[in-house]
Specification:
Helix content is about 45%, strand content about 15%. The chain is α/β, with parallel strands linked by helices. Helix 9 links the parallel strand 9 and strand 10.
Length: about 400
């Protein structure tokens, strides 16, 4: 585990608590560690981590990789996992995206070994990359659409992380009673616990600190943050700092743009693990939930960072329509502004800086929402119930 989400690990732990044995299959990831320390043999290593048997393939992956390299890595992972489908002993296969190719071993297990298969959909593919213009080749889009259809229809049960994802699965012909909504949850044991607050260099104790945590990629639309920073500079609001924590393919371009435009109110920081991240959240004033203005994102995503923010008691500034924006408005736990509107983005940050009491109230509302609706322990039980039902 590292700066990446810990959803799968936490759900695996709950399966163990219910008396099940769990084998987790994964590749290597630059921002996280599996807990295995042995040498790779024939491209893989395995061992026990916290009661979970982990099989790690030596398939280095980074969000900075190009599209072709990422696709090749995903296909290699699927191919190697198929080998495990035939060699391992198991009662059920659970696969989670992205990428969509993660479902291939489950398809094989369902039809060739007659094993129950549960497929979790974190993003709608190929709808999202098509909407973003990342994939335009009609042959590839057709192949991905076919794989999506086969994955959904092969699974005995599906899990969607947002209402829009559930609807997207149903639109492919899956009966609603075979789909369960299990959104990303709040790690209250990490983010609601006592932490040692810290701020990056360049952020003063009395500055309003707005943080974004996550991938710096095309989907994240972080130029919107820099646009807002430029607007704040025009207004001479040097007391508002925007901190971007993470890595990604577009990070060098964002750093270069900030340098060229003299945006010293934007602070870039490397990715940190969850414990360190919780300390940053404890010192922050507001969390930035930012995505590119792509309509497919409005209801078809369930970002980890939103749930980390509200678990930390941070108000959230969201810059696109959809189910999260509606939730923020309904529960009064932050600001929802329109996309591609740096003035409104800057206005919200100024309002936050100028009204500390309102900001505290929003944070309390967010924490209450986290505890009542998105406590990871409660969602873990729903997840395990769903898997146990598929195995009967």
């Amino acid at each position: 585990m590292g700066s990446a989400g810990v959803r799968s690990y936490e759900f695996a732990r709950r399966l163990l608590d219910r008396g099940h044995n769990v084998t987790m299959v994964c590749g290597s990831y630059g921002a996280g560690v599996t807990g295995l320390e042995g040498m790779f043999v024939d491209g893989r290593r395995r061992g026990m981590v916290g009661g979970i048997e982990v099989i790690e393939f030596y398939l280095a992956y980074s969000n900075c990789d190009g599209f072709t390299r990422r696709v090749f890595t995903f296909l290699k992972f699927a191919w190697r996992s198929i080998g495990l489908v035939f060699s391992e002993k198991y009662d059920l296969v659970f696969a989670t995206t992205t990428p969509l190719t993660a479902g291939i071993p489950g398809i094989v297990a369902r039809w060739l070994r007659r094993k129950p298969f549960v497929f979790e959909v974190r993003d709608l593919w190929p709808e999202l990359p098509k909407a973003m213009g990342v994939i335009a080749n009609p042959v590839m889009l057709g192949a991905m659409s076919l794989l999506e259809w086969v994955s959904y229809r092969s699974a005995h049960r599906c899990i969607g992380l947002s209402p829009g994802i559930v609807e997207g699965i149903a639109a492919r012909g899956v009966a609603k009673e075979h789909i369960e909504l299990v959104p990303n949850g709040c790690d209250l044991t990490i983010f609601a616990a006592e932490q040692t607050p810290w701020r990056p260099e360049g952020v003063k104790p009395d500055d309003l600190m707005a943080v974004f945590t996550g991938t710096h990629g095309m989907a994240n639309g972080l130029d919107a943050v820099l646009d807002a920073a430029a607007e704040l500079k025009k207004r001479n609001r040097i007391d508002i700092k925007l901190v971007l924590v993470g890595q990604g393919k577009l990070k060098p371009k964002l750093v270069e743009r900030a340098k060229q435009e003299g945006l010293d109110n934007v602070i870039f920081h490397d990715a940190v693990n969850k414990s360190r991240l919780a300390g940053l959240m404890a010192s922050a004033d507001i969390g930035l939930q930012v995505l590119a203005n792509v309509p497919a994102f409005y209801y078809g995503t369930s970002p980890n960072k939103f749930f980390d923010y509200i678990a930390s008691g941070l108000p959230v500034l969201n810059n696109y329509p959809g189910w999260l924006a509606n939730m923020i408005k309904e529960h009064g736990c932050g600001f929802a502004v329109g996309p591609d509107n740096p003035q409104a983005f800057a206005d919200a940050l100024e309002q936050a800086a100028n009204n500390g009491e309102q900001l505290v109230e929003m944070g309390i509302n967010g924490r209450r929402l986290a505890e009542q609706e998105f406590d990871r322990s409660k969602l873990s039980n729903r997840f395990v119930d769903w898997l146990e039902g598929a195995a009967k």
